[in-house]
Amino acid sequence: MLSNTAIIIIAVVIIICFLALYFFTYRTDIKLGKELEKKSVADTALQLQAYERLTILTERISLKNLLSRISPADMQVGVYQSLLVESIKQEYEYNLSQQLYVSNQVWEALTNLKEQNIFIIHQLAGTLPANAPGIELSKRMLELLDADPKTSLHFVVLDALKFEAGKIMKGK
3-state SS string over 110-140? Predict the structure, then answer.
């Protein structure tokens, strides 16, 4: 049989082991919590960066900004049409990875904006003779935009981006 001293020593060792295990677990939880907090801050930064990039994309593929960046110069309407459509597609493809950080609704709105603008370019180009100068397409697009500038999906997408980014900044 064990003496009282041996029992006390075993009890103290067991208590020390339990305390060590508790503090080790507690410290691990604290470290894990801090790592999750850092990760959360990093995730939020990535999401906000994505919304910034997609705001730039929205502005760059808006018809008015597209026309101001790409001059029809001495091109025929078909060449100018292709150049405008290709520019939209390149801008969109360059930002495809941003869809990982935004809601499905925002990404769908951006895709719809891209498709709408390409559709408008094709429709307006189709109303012109094949040998018409590219400046005629540019004029038709500006006339359409000047008729009612707020009807563009461009503004709806910008509002959606602002709303979603605002939710992230407020902590959802």
Answer: HHHHHHHHHHHHHHHHHCCCCCCEHHHHHHH
Say yes or no to pLDDT of 126 above 90: yes
**Cβ-proximal residues to 156 (8 Å cutoff; 6+ apart), any chain:** 109
Indicate the DSSP class of residue 148: -
In total, the chain counts a number of residues equal to 172
Cβ contact 90:156 at 8 Å: no
Question: Could you tell me if 84 and 69 are in contact, meaning their C-beta atoms sit under 8 angstroms apart?
Answer: no
Average pLDDT over residues 41-52: 88
pLDDT greater than 60 at residue 104: yes
Whole-model pTM: value is: 0.74
Mean pLDDT of 93-122: 94
CA pair distance 26, 62, nearest whole angstrom: 54
Structure tokens at 103: 């809601």
Encoded amino acid at 108, one letter: E
Q: Per-residue pLDDT for 135 more than 50?
A: yes
CA distances from 24 to 17, 20, 32 (A): 10, 6, 12
